[in-house]
Amino acid sequence: MLDFRAIVILILSFSLNMAHGQVINVFDESGQPLEMVTFGSQNPNAFATTDASGQVDISEFKNADSIQVRMLGFETVVI
């Protein structure tokens, strides 16, 4: 079973670099890419999902107040 805390740590580290890139990779603690991790925000209204390679384009989230990160079976995290 995946440790969602490790996923969140990776996502948080990538979120600090959002201004420098548009595509991020999401991996678990063992380095395996995670598919179907969803990112969403209400302001701006944006939604994105990681692909089989764990990549997601976050360009729609520019200037987002917060981003909700979800993965089926785990608690939603807001960054």
Description:
By secondary structure, the chain is α+β, with helices and mostly antiparallel strands. Helices cover 15% and strands 27% of the residues. The two termini are 23 Å apart.
Offer a quick outline of the entry.
This protein has 79 residues and is α+β, with helices and mostly antiparallel strands. The protein contains one helix and six strands.
Q: What string gives the helices and strands in order?
A: HEEEEEE
Secondary structure: number of strands: 6
What class do helices, strands and sheet pairing give?
alpha+beta
Total helix count?
1
Low-confidence stretches: 15-19
Mean pLDDT score, rounded?
Answer: 78
Rg, Cα atoms, Å: 11 Å
Record keyword descriptors for this entry:
four-stranded antiparallel β-sheet; 1 helix; two-stranded antiparallel sheet; globular; 79 residues; alpha+beta; 27% strand
How are the elements arranged and paired?
Elements lengths: L3 H12 L7 E3 L12 E5 L2 E5 L5 E3 L10 E3 L6 E2 L1
Antiparallel strand pairs: 1-4, 2-3, 2-5, 5-6
